[in-house]
Every structure is written in structure tokens, then in C-alpha cells.
Amino acid sequence: MTAFKAANCRALVLLVSVFAFAVLQISAPAGAAGALAVGKCGAYGQAYDYPAEEAARAAALKQCKGTCEAVTMKRACAALSVDMANPCGAHGYAVASRISNTLNAATKKCYDFGGKECVIRAWACDAKG
Length: 129
Hints:
Elements: H1 3-27, E1 33-38, E2 44-50, H2 53-63, E3 69-73, E4 77-83, E5 91-96, H3 99-112, E6 118-125
Antiparallel strand pairs: 1-2, 1-3, 4-5, 4-6
């Protein structure tokens, strides 16, 4: 492959990448919101990319079995961690702007509340999280 063809290929790949990124940004809901509902014994419900926080909260609570509480997220991620040694025992949840921070914080909270084998049970991010 000549240097000219290689340069054209790199330019084409760059152009396609920029176009794809722009399309994803345009197609993402402007007011995207999400929620994570948390109940006893690892029960959960999740909703993401809803037009408003209240709609996301209602959808997450509808999925959750039993008495649950919900946290909302906007341009963020939420995660739930439960103790697999005792799923009805310790748990932790968190909301943060990046998924890695969210997963770490939820797991840490589970251990802080006495969990012995904490694992992520559920997570979700809205369009911008």
C-alpha cells in the first residue's frame, strides 16, 4: 500500500469516527434521566433514558418487588451491590458520573454496612452517563 493510500485510509477512518460520534450525540435524549429502585433481599428496578426524572423513578419502582426506594440519576450512572453470602443483609448503592466510580462506591458501601461477599447486582447509566 502506498503512503498516499494509507493516508487516505486513515483520513477516512477518522472522518467516519467523527461522524459516528456526532450522530450518537445528536440522537441521545436531551433531558435523559434514569433511576434505580432498591428493595429488600436484592430486589431492584432500573430505568434509564427517560425524558424526566419522575417518569424514570416511577418505571424503576414498578419493576422493583416489595417496598423499594428509588434514587434518580441524570447524566450519571447508578449501581446496586449486595452481599451474596446473605442477599437479605448488607447492600450498598451509589450514583456517580462515571460507571467505574459508581460500581466501586456501591461495592464499598456494601462492605461498609457489613457485607462479606459484595457483588454488583444491577447497574444502569442514562444517555450521558
